[in-house]
């Protein structure tokens, strides 16, 4: 993802459902991104994210490596307290593969408030590549999105047991 998206010093990166925080830490370490946020609801991954945060800072200091500002947050990204963070994002990452249609719908409602030009990177499309505007879907976020598909990297792995596509 980092190689396929031009991340600049003006970007605000938000990972919705950030798990243990590895994507947030990678973006903070490998890009000039202004700030990175990760929001995770589940208790166990949030605890591991806290440990990852500590180890990341320790190892980066040990090796003399610089990294950008980031914050790993335990919470529900659908709550209003996180709305401002999401709205300020220029890049949103969401691994929505395991989310149901209800959460996907709520995310689409949140995405309607993103700034023009914001990029959404998701594991499952929020609208098809061949989306057509009709009277029935005028209120769908797909009417204002430009959708493109990212190429998987060679040797990619997936936590689902299925090939990355």
Automatic annotation (TrEMBL):
Database matches in InterPro entries: DOT1_dom (IPR025789), H3-K79_meTrfase (IPR030445), SAM-dependent_MTases_sf (IPR029063)
Other noteworthy facts: In contrast to other lysine histone methyltransferases, it does not contain a SET domain, suggesting the existence of another mechanism for methylation of lysine residues of histones.
Chief place of localization: nucleus
Cellular component aspect of the GO annotation: histone methyltransferase complex
Family of this protein: Belongs to the class I-like SAM-binding methyltransferase superfamily. DOT1 family.
Catalytic activity: L-lysyl(79)-[histone H3] + 3 S-adenosyl-L-methionine = N(6),N(6),N(6)-trimethyl-L-lysyl(79)-[histone H3] + 3 S-adenosyl-L-homocysteine + 3 H(+)
Residues spanning the membrane: none
Gene3D superfamilies: Vaccinia Virus protein VP39
Organism, scientific name: Pararge aegeria (speckled wood butterfly)
Primary enzyme class: transferase
Subcellular location: Nucleus
Chain ranges of the DOT1 domain: 1-165
Domain of life of the native organism: Eukaryota
Enzyme nomenclature, EC number: 2.1.1.360
Biological process according to GO: DNA damage checkpoint signaling; DNA repair; methylation
Pfam families the record matches: DOT1
Name of protein: Histone-lysine N-methyltransferase, H3 lysine-79 specific
A GO term, aspect molecular function: histone H3K79 trimethyltransferase activity
Function: Histone methyltransferase that specifically trimethylates histone H3 to form H3K79me3. This methylation is required for telomere silencing and for the pachytene checkpoint during the meiotic cell cycle by allowing the recruitment of RAD9 to double strand breaks. Nucleosomes are preferred as substrate compared to free histone.
Keywords: Chromatin regulator, Methyltransferase, Nucleus, S-adenosyl-L-methionine, Transferase
